[in-house]
Design a protein that fits this description.
Layout: E1 24-33, E2 36-45, E3 76-79, E4 86-90, H1 106-116, E5 121-128, E6 134-138, E7 144-145, H2 150-162, H3 170-181, H4 185-194, H5 197-208, E8 225-226, H6 228-239, H7 247-257, E9 276-284, E10 291-301, E11 304-315, H8 318-336
Antiparallel strand pairs: 1-2, 3-4, 4-6, 5-6, 5-11, 7-8, 9-10, 10-11
Region (Disordered): 50-109
Protein name: Serine hydrolase
Biased composition (Low complexity): 50-104
């Protein structure tokens, strides 16, 4: 029987563009785990590893230093549960009362409980494209390492840069397919260089309105930092007409996200009662043994089209992180949709 934790292709050790002449690299940074800050220096193979240090993914050896939204429609309600993460729930005036998220009820209680079970930090952002309702809940102001969900951002940036200039080349399309459908790191390395590395990513994200996302420097694309709210803004670029990407570019990306390989279809898909399109990221940190687990995409939930991003770090294991992300996604979808 297939296990989602056993056969996943490795994402790589450091999510870095790798020079052809080197196989060993190091990076120093600040790692925030459970409210403490630790200075750590890590080294790891620049190639995908099969060592016992990783299970179901690549052994993480890079550390990101924390780095430093859209207007909320009214009416709005702000939740500040004592000792719990902050939450903001909003709904457009045009949304029927029965579809508006509230600060009470089974859905919100389940979401609070799910986030409270995080061993590290967790955050979720949701927009219901059917009603206009939205929700943000979790670690306020915390910057999360993207791991491989940044591959969606890399592709969106490449498409933005090439629109009106003939589009992607045949080789770039092949790389994009591998990068999104298989989460292939070598393909991401090539395309990250093609967009101009972190400077190209940052320039595109500024245009996309991602004010809390910063590209990983020194070619460590997997150490890009972001927030759940910014990732939903990126999803708007991919899935709505309010986008800098033209219809052909959006359709192209959506087609790839529909075909993510089977053992990478966990995450926000747990909130789907119908179709879904997603990109996941998973990365263990060698200094701590803790995992980054992220998932972002569009799901059909009871006839509602939801853009949803769940980010987490400090997970004790890959399986625990996936369980956390899925429980948060399901509870958030019930609250909003």
């Amino acid at each position: 029987m297939w296990s989602r934790f056993a056969a996943r292709p490795r994402e790589g050790t450091d999510h870095r563009v790798r020079p052809r002449t080197a196989v060993i690299c190091t990076v120093a940074g600040v790692l925030a785990v459970a409210g403490t800050t630790t200075l750590a220096v890590h080294g790891g193979s620049a190639r995908a590893s099969t060592s016992a240090a990783a299970t179901g993914s690549g052994a993480g050896s890079a550390v990101a230093a924390p780095s430093p939204g859209s207007a909320s429609p009214t009416p709005s309600a702000t939740l500040s549960p004592t000792g719990a993460p902050s939450a903001t729930v909003t709904a457009t005036p045009s949304a029927p009362a029965s579809t508006r998220p509230t600060d009470s009820g089974d859905g919100m209680d389940a979401l609070k409980d799910a986030v409270a079970r995080a061993s590290g930090n967790a955050s979720v952002s949701v927009v219901d494209l059917t009603t206009g309702a939205s929700l943000d809940y979790g670690a306020a102001g915390h910057s999360f390492v993207t791991a491989s969900i940044v591959k969606l951002d890399i592709l969106a940036t490449l498409l933005l840069q090439t629109q009106g200039q003939g589009g992607l080349s045949t080789s770039q399309r092949a790389l994009a397919t591998s990068m999104i459908e298989n989460s292939d790191n070598d393909a991401a390395n090539s395309l990250y260089l093609a967009i101009g590395a972190h400077s190209g990513l940052d320039a595109a994200n500024k245009r996309f309105g991602l004010g809390s996302t910063q590209g990983g420097t020194d070619d460590y694309w997997g150490l890009t930092t972001t927030t759940a709210a910014d990732q939903v803004k990126l999803l708007r670029q991919v899935f709505t007409g309010s986008s800098l990407l033209d219809a052909a570019s959006r359709e192209y990306v959506q087609g790839l996200l529909r075909q993510v390989e089977t053992d990478q279809r966990w995450g926000v898909s747990a909130a789907a009662t119908g179709d879904y399109q997603l990109k996941n990221g998973w990365l263990p940190r060698s200094a701590t043994g803790l995992w980054v687990i992220n998932s972002t995409g569009l799901v059909d939930h009871d006839g509602h089209q939801l853009l949803i991003s769940v980010l987490s770090d400090g997970n004790l294991s890959e399986s625990q992180g996936i369980t956390l992300v899925e429980s948060v996604a399901k509870a958030a979808a019930e609250t909003v949709g």
